[in-house]
Amino acid sequence: MRWISVLSGKGGAGKSSITASLAIAISKRHTIICADCDVDAPNLALVLGSDNMIEREALSTSMKADIDEKKCNGCGKCKDACTFEAITIEEGKAMINRHICEGCKACSLACPNDAIQRKKIQNGEAVCIETAYGFKIVAGQLAPGESGSGKIVTKVRLMAERIGEGCDLALSDSSAGIGCPVIASVSGSDYAIIVAEPTPSGFSDMKRAIEMTEILKVPSGIIINKHSINPMISDKIITLAKEKRSPILAKIGYDKDFIDALVKRTPIIDFQPNYKPLFEGIVDKLEEMKIIERR
Hints:
It is built from eleven helices and 13 strands. By secondary structure, the protein is an alpha/beta fold. The chain has two domains: 2-60 and 126-288, Rossmann fold (3-Layer(aba) Sandwich); 62-121, Alpha-Beta Plaits (2-Layer Sandwich). Helix 1 (15-27) packs across helix 11 and helix 7 (200-215) runs parallel beside helix 8 (231-243). The longest helix is centred in the last third of the chain and has 16 residues, at 200-215.
């Protein structure tokens, strides 16, 4: 199974909207599974208007300190050792705020009574959702206040590979930016599609996204979204893409229909059929480059 990751370098570039319509266009020719790797704010199922959850799995990828009250004598040495101020002494016993605890084990090492151990805690979940378009989405959700988003992404990818066994392609919707969850999403991919926004910050973030894919040795292509809002920066994106040998897969003008489509939870390719040739053209280019095997 080939793996394509869609990323943007910044939020609000239109990554999820484009991923949803691209998934539909690809599914007309190939078997596909989608992975929503934006585990801090998963919304691919929302864009596709899908609510039919068929599988749920609790995920435990983080460790936190856990106190055995019977062994704790309230000496406070753990509190003094905690850099994150996650420990308080209440009624003669140490208490841990799990949302602040980083699981660093300093308190456990400082405790003279061996009253503190690290334990795995549930810090997220992964779900599988059936869409109306004949393919499934595996989506991850980090629990509020918890850490470990990169590890949750890895679990989502593994679940997508299991459920999508036999599919031609996995298409992932990455988080915004270039941080840990994006690296986890893009690492090991066969191709990365970078959605670029022609604004000063969008151009800067696109450059960082390309640099990240180069470090990870993942070839990339560019989709310029809202290209009409700043033709000058759009031209700079095209020039940079040529320098980096990242082909321009498509240019999409600013269109309020994208907003209306999101409100109605309908992918733009269905909401406004005149976008169908554009997304089919992207699939054509991916097949020409042999990123996707032509059938």
